[in-house]
Amino acid sequence: MSVAPRLNFPEGMLAGQTAIITGAGQGIGAETAAVFAREGCKVVIADIDAAKAEKTAQAINADGGAAIAVAGDITVNEDIDKLVQKASEFGGGKIHIIVNNAGYAWDDPVEKIQDKQWETIITLHNTAPFKLIRAVAPYFMVKDGEPRNIVNISSTSGIYGNAGQASYALAKAGLVGLTKTLAQEWGPGYSVRANTVAFGAIKTRLTQAPAGGYVVRPDGTKHAVGFHGGYDEAEAKWASEIPLRRIGTPTDAARATLGVVSPLFGYVTGQTIMVSGGRGGM
């Protein structure tokens, strides 16, 4: 039996790498950026909200990390091009990690979903990640011996379905297919790893009771977030259905994503990693 060296990453597991994280101005995206930065990664905070993106980047830099904010709409081709260019400049001509995290749900029963609702969710969760991945192809289809990772953030709704979330469930399921295809296309020859992380119950502004919060749609209109009976409002009920008996936190989500892009998962690709406290579907 060969003797494996003791795991030791004095400069961090992601030292020397540059990551783009979309929707990183707050919530899971912001926490993921902070966790990556503490592991030595340069992080590009991509978000439609310039003020929140800048605040997140400043907090990381104040903590000793390295981050820049790039505001823009990932459903707009020109903004994607700008994001990739800024990331490349920040990374000294290289990009190593993409985390397609941006998104939200716009729920209704099937019979009530309007075309605009449907098209917005599919564009945000499927078309935008595809276009970003396509745009970074020149930085990933390389043979320089450095690690490259793509993580598409999905949901247990995309694995099991969820009543009232037809568009969201379809979009999140679509990311699984995109990820598996990418693993097969960019793994041979370039050693790019592509995985999906599917979150279950995680405490964010999107999963709490309505409190006046909103997200901005691509057309500039505002979309209220939260739902009655949210995780904060009925935490005991939700937790009772989860084997670990608690709702996940953004830190739980961020650490799982770190694990997937880390050297510890160096032989894992094309997989969907469930981060749900053990809770499955109906």
Automatic annotation (TrEMBL):
Gene Ontology molecular function: 3-oxoacyl-[acyl-carrier-protein] reductase (NADPH) activity
Record Gene3D superfamilies: NAD(P)-binding Rossmann-like Domain (3.40.50.720)
SUPFAM superfamilies in alphabetical order: NAD(P)-binding Rossmann-fold domains (SSF51735)
Top-level taxonomic group: Eukaryota
Domain (Ketoreductase) ranges: 17-205
Top-tier EC class: oxidoreductase
Claim: Protein transport is one of the keywords in the record: no
Family annotation (InterPro entries): KR_dom, NAD(P)-bd_dom_sf, SDR, SDR_fam
Record EC number: 1.1.1.100
Catalytic reaction annotation: a (3R)-hydroxyacyl-[ACP] + NADP(+) = a 3-oxoacyl-[ACP] + NADPH + H(+)
SMART domains (UniProt xref): PKS_KR (SM00822)
Keyword terms of this UniProt record: NADP
Family according to the record: Belongs to the short-chain dehydrogenases/reductases (SDR) family.
Protein name, entry field: 3-oxoacyl-[acyl-carrier-protein] reductase
Origin species: Cladophialophora immunda
